[in-house]
Amino acid sequence: MALPSGTRYLKRLRNHYRLVVMNEDTFEEMIAFKLTRWTVYVALSAFFIVLVGLTIALIAFTPLKLYIPGYGVSGKAKEFETLKLRADSIEHQLIIKQRYINEVEKVLKGNVVALDTTTLKVNTEGETHLPKKIKKRNR
């Protein structure tokens, strides 16, 4: 089957058709439309564009956008960052306190540790940090 030429195709776009909605029992015409293929294409295209626009508006302006992966509230990202920093600092403090408890436990068990007070570091909060290399005292 050969493709229709350009002028024949344009003529078919302009041909008038009649769409009739009838009552099946009485054959009474309920609604009649005079259409062309061109008006049907334009109407369907407009309907599609409106449908896509409404869908985008529904997602963009309602809380539905939170269900899209990777799309979140900008304030939440900053809050997550501050929570991450807090968790890191709490973990750091926990490590320091665990080191302190380990050293106290060594002293209580009798493993006395000689501290060099010149290398003992004190931070601004008054907490002491033991040096990494600690010499054990021989008895």
Keywords:
139 residues; alpha+beta; 2 domains; two-stranded antiparallel ribbon; rod-shaped
Explain this structure to me?
The mean pLDDT is 82. The chain is rod-shaped. The chain is an alpha+beta fold and 139 residues long. The strands form 2 sheets. A two-stranded antiparallel ribbon has the order 1-2. It has a two-stranded antiparallel ribbon with strand order 3-4. The protein has 2 domains: 6-67, no CATH class; 74-129. The protein is built from 3 helices and 4 strands, in the order H-E-E-H-H-E-E.
Secondary structure: elements and pairs:
Elements: H1 6-14, E1 16-22, E2 29-36, H2 37-60, H3 74-109, E3 121-122, E4 128-129
Antiparallel strand pairs: 1-2, 3-4
Overall domain count: 2
Percent in helix: 40-55%
Distance between the termini: 107 Å
Q: Structural class, please?
A: alpha+beta
Overall 3D geometry?
Answer: rod-shaped
Main beta-sheet strand count, sense and barrel state? 2 strands, antiparallel
How many β-strand runs? 4
Poorly predicted runs are none
How are the strands of the biggest sheet laid out side by side? 1-2
Brief characterization of the structure:
With 139 residues, the chain is α+β, with helices and mostly antiparallel strands. The protein has helices at 6-14, 37-60, 74-109, and strands spanning 16-22, 29-36, 121-122, 128-129. Strands 1-2 form a two-stranded antiparallel ribbon. Strands 3-4 form a two-stranded antiparallel ribbon.
